[in-house]
């Protein structure tokens, strides 16, 4: 009899333990799920002082953006024209300074700021000439020196790792546009095409930047 009572008591304790554990696990899953929903990391990046996920449509510095709802990848694109570029005659007295002409160089900056973003980010920057020609060459700044580097066909990839101090950090990439002065029939034809368009030289450089979370 005592043996049967002891068996029933042990069985009761085991049942209570199982039910209690199941309740605790269910409660844990609910709380963790709710907490995860409430604590989504900030994704707050600006390019040339324009927020990429909530751009000001009246701000001409803003890029056109598209966001992949599944991956979260953000793609920006903007055309940079003659008026967006600063020019230098590179000390050549035969070329007017601050004007686009054969022998001059232009540049414009892309400023990427993570603001209060709470994840590391990876971006790939591409730029190309809207019209194929042999007179214009594209370069980018080297973050480790003062040298200019030919812009990669696959684009330049940069990584900004998360830091609590990244609200003050900014990646600045300078893109250079060099109008090569060379003597050839093809180059002369391109120079004429670029330099004569009702008084306004034709030059358009699309720039694309793709942002994604860096998990490497």
How many beta-strand runs? 12
Structural class: alpha+beta
Q: Given the structure, what is the number of helices?
A: 2
Overall geometry comes to elongated
Number of domains: 2
Folded structure, characterized:
A hairpin with a 6-residue loop joins strand 8 and strand 9 (148-150). The chain has two domains: 1-40; 46-213, no CATH class. The protein has two helices and twelve strands; from the N terminus they run H-E-E-E-E-E-E-E-E-E-E-E-H-E. It has 216 residues and is an alpha+beta fold. Strands 1, 2, 5, 6, 8, 9 and 11 form a seven-stranded antiparallel sheet that branches. The chain has a five-stranded antiparallel sheet with strand order 3-4-12-7-10, with no helix packed on it. The protein has helices at 2-38, 185-195; strands at 46-47, 50-51, 64-67, 74-81, 86-88, 105-113, 121-127, 136-141, 148-150, 156-160, 171-179, 204-213. The model is unreliable at 4-38 and 187-192 (pLDDT under 50). It starts with a helix and ends with a strand.
